[in-house]
UniProtKB/TrEMBL annotation:
InterPro entries: HGLS. The keyword Transmembrane helix does not apply. Keywords: Dioxygenase, Iron, Oxidoreductase. Its cofactor is Fe(2+). It comes from the Bacteria. It comes from Pseudomonas helleri. One of its GO terms (molecular function) is dioxygenase activity. Pfam families: HGLS. Its EC number is 1.13.11.93. This is 2-oxoadipate dioxygenase/decarboxylase. Belongs to the 2-oxoadipate dioxygenase/decarboxylase family. The lineage of its organism: Bacteria, Pseudomonadati, Pseudomonadota, Gammaproteobacteria, Pseudomonadales.
Length: 340
């Protein structure tokens, strides 16, 4: 089986054939993947990294109607989107049910796939820290992960107690079999195709909410001190956004505003001036919360969104600037703040 055919067959193992075909038609897949092994016996980690990213992009655009419309419109204009990065939020707290603490729940997934946390980003205003995870085999081609941790210890005691109640029911989507495959990937950079087909659906499920339904009173307590933790309470470890890398951000923004899309008011510019970002405002989703009488009541809360980024060349390296920026990130995070 040709490698690129195999990639989308691998995606089918998690999403099914129609979704795999949609991704083939709408998302740019790097040609450089073909330089890495693909066989029944040895699938290189880059293929799993790309397959996971494709699956997660598909999940997000189907959860964000404006995002799906945007990607479809790009295809109508003859352009496939270029997946630059996705972002997830975790909780740096010991009472996390079956899940490892904070970003460790994802470093155990990302590192075997070739991702390394190349830089730390203080998100001081949010009482969070972010890490940029870059795929080291194809750093410019495979989408990065921006993984953030919220630090409950910096909030009130009541807030901390609420966080404990919310995340204590978390289940681990990875079983022993998946962990063993990841360990072998980490050591050898390869696994068999059969193992890849078993592993990918589990990795895909890891990017969801792993804890149970939240009490209304707990949600409100979290929202009073941290919009980000309130978001985690309903959305968990889902992508809070994914990003299309565009060649001209201002032109993209102008077009989206002409179409009356729900754009952020301004463009965030990094301290270097080489990374520029803006975004749609988060979509609104309906989530169940448990009221004082123990009944499940539906509430409208912020969901996820699509971001747009332009990366310029770093004159010192001659390569595009793949870094993030703490100020940019904190501005973008406001998209999921229901109070903003």
């Amino acid at each position: 089986m040709p490698a690129f055919e195999g990639l989308f067959t691998l995606v089918e193992s998690a999403l099914g054939q129609p979704a795999a075909q949609w991704l083939r038609d709408h998302v740019e897949v790097p040609d450089a993947l073909q330089h890495f092994n693909w066989s029944e016996q040895a699938v290189h980690r880059v293929w799993l990294a790309e397959a996971l990213n494709l699956c997660l992009l598909h999940k997000l655009v189907n959860a964000v109607p404006d995002g799906l419309r945007y990607v479809e419109e790009q295809a109508q204009q003859g352009r496939k989107v270029v997946f630059d990065h996705g972002a997830i939020r975790t909780v740096d707290w010991p009472h996390n049910g079956q899940l490892p603490r904070g970003r460790q729940a994802f470093s155990r997934i990302l590192e075997p796939l070739g991702f390394t946390d190349v830089r730390t980003y203080p998100l001081t205003k949010l009482n969070m820290t972010g890490w940029g995870y870059r795929q080291m085999d194809l750093p410019e081609d495979i989408a990065q992960f921006f993984v953030s941790e919220l630090h409950p210890g910096r909030f009130s005691e009541k807030f901390q107690q609420t966080v404990s109640r919310v995340v204590a029911s978390s289940l681990d989507p990875l079983h022993d079999e998946h962990v063993h495959i990841l360990e072998r990937l980490h050591l050898t950079q390869h696994c068999s195709l059969q193992e890849a087909n078993r592993l990918l659906p589990a990795l895909y499920r890891a990017f969801e909410r792993q804890h149970g339904v939240v009490l209304e009173t707990d949600y409100q307590c979290l929202l009073n001190e941290s919009a980000e933790m309130a978001w985690i309470a309903t959305e968990g470890n889902s992508f809070n956004h994914l990003t299309d890398r565009v060649s001209d951000l201002q032109a993209c923004v102008t077009q989206q505003r002409e179409l009356q899309r729900p754009m952020k008011d301004s463009i965030e510019v990094s301290a270097s001036g080489r990374v520029m970002q803006t975004a749609y405002r988060a979509c609104t989703v309906t989530r169940g919360l448990i009221d004082a009488g123990g009944q499940l009541c539906e509430h409208s809360v912020p969901g996820s969104f699509v971001e747009f980024i332009e990366r310029k060349v770093d004159p010192e390296t001659g390569r595009i600037d793949l870094n993030f920026d703490s100020s940019n990130a904190q501005g973008i995070f406001k998209m999921t703040d229901s109070k903003a």
